[in-house]
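Figure 2 data, in text form.
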Amino acid sequence: MSIRVMLVDDHLIVLRGLKFFLNTQTDINVVGEVENGKVALEKIEDLQPDVILMDLMMPVMDGVEATKEILKRYPESKIVVLTSYSDQDHVIPALQAGAAGYQLKDVDPDELVKAIRTAHQGEKLLHPKATSLLLSEMSHDQKKKEAAATATFTLTKREKDVLYQITLGKSNKEISAALYITEKTVKTHVSNLLSKLEVHDRTQAAIYAMKHDMFAEKA
């Protein structure tokens, strides 16, 4: 059985070129070409593509938004992004939206066919530049998590006590009374813990504490 492919791109010459090339493949059948994500959403039920080849920058509805909406309505869809953009602002949102592949328009034609076949099989195939950016983003996220863990670890016991009181919504005066320390000392602890957690105010500190389950045992 051939792989049913829908092309989504706002450039007619790109659509025609892709259709001509892909239809030379014995296992691929281009079932439709549309000019933006909105039309893709309208046509997908009738065309029932196995794989959608999606441009990113289009009028009316761009590729990232279209990918989100299509996968929300048709979660079994396989979407391969085909674009000219290889920067972080385009790659990461597309992959987060659920794209099953990310290829650049200067890709070798055989690699594009491979990406379509790979997506159809339920696997991902990314352009090397997209892979590099994804790994970089994952590394950045890991470093942020490690930094958060380190910041939590470096809080003194008293700073943790003050932070717990902050999560309860208490003022400096109330914290002073609860911990039997002066308000001035409370202010010093608050200032120190904000700096260590790299947050700007008490609300952010409280959110940080709850997000990292710092006081789960006290709940």
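Caption note: The longest helix spans residues 128-154.
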